[in-house]
Write a structure and sequence with these properties.
With about 240 residues, the protein is α+β, with helices and mostly antiparallel strands. The chain has 2 domains: about 120 residues; about 100 residues, no CATH class. The chain is about 50% helix and about 15% strand. The protein has 11 helices and 8 strands. The strands form 3 sheets. Strands 3-4-5-6 form a 4-stranded antiparallel sheet. Strands 1-2 form a two-stranded antiparallel sheet. A two-stranded antiparallel ribbon has the order 7-8. The radius of gyration is 20 Å and the shape is elongated.
């Protein structure tokens, strides 16, 4: 049972969120949904304690409400942020697991919002850095430091190429080296899970991009070869 008297939203209020939840449960009121969103998640990168408290009720609504599904996903994506209470995400682990199953069923229907739901699934599994970074691989860039010489390397995965390079702001991406994609059989952990989901749902461009992201790249400066995903995760994985 939530003690709303001790659960603040982004305005410091303790009574408005439960009122709004009741309104959207009884009537799919767009104005109530908008207010609920900005009371729970500030600028899509900071979630407040009331957001975690509201999550179980949002998940119960999510099977019949796209707004509930999207807001619940936004809360989970922000779970690694500086909300000041490490116990908050753990306290709603059951709701997060339920949301993961619901989102996975949604992905199987191949919806128009596939990428957004895909990113939310990644977040429910605790891979917050990939949830933030994952694009549709039409024009994606990842900045990593070479683990051997520390030079900043740009990784490009998109319609204009799949390569590592040194970014020059006057000349563009120079000294390009082709990426070496991972074989599907060689994928492990989060990469394998994401790849198998994309393949299952017929998202071939997404699946191919994942093999490149979790493959290997060559540093244009020192020619060292490294795993892109490992280096990106090392510098972007949140300290939970």
């Amino acid at each position: 049972m939530v003690n709303w008297a001790q659960t603040q939203d982004c305005y410091g209020d303790v009574d408005r969120v439960p009122e709004l939840l009741t309104r959207v449960e009884l009537d799919d009121d767009p104005k109530a949904w908008r207010e609920l969103g900005y009371r729970l998640v500030l600028e899509c990168d900071l979630v407040f304690p009331a957001g975690f408290a509201a999550l179980p009720r949002l998940v119960r609504l999510a099977s019949r409400s796209a707004r509930a599904r999207e807001l619940a996903g936004a809360i989970v994506r922000c779970a690694a942020g500086d909300h000041g209470r490490d116990d908050l995400p753990e306290g709603c682990s059951g709701a997060i697991s339920e949301l993961r199953e619901l989102l996975d069923r949604h992905l199987r229907s191949r919806p128009d919002d596939y990428l957004a739901a895909f990113r939310d699934v990644i977040a429910t599994e605790g891979h917050y850095h990939w949830s933030v970074a994952m694009g549709d691989f039409s024009d994606d860039f990842y900045e990593v430091a070479c683990p051997h010489c520390a030079v900043e390397v740009t990784i490009a995965i998109g319609d204009h190429g799949r390569y590592s390079a040194i970014r020059d702001w006057d000349l563009g991406d120079v000294e390009r080296r082709s990426l070496r994609p991972a074989s599907p059989e060689g994928l492990r952990g989060a990469g394998r899970r994401m790849y198998e989901t994309a393949v299952r749902d017929g998202e071939t461009v997404l699946a191919d991009g994942i093999t490149h992201l979790f493959g290997r790249a060559e540093c244009p400066r020192c020619a060292a070869v490294f795993t892109t995903a490992d280096e990106y995760a090392a510098s972007h994985r949140p300290p939970l």
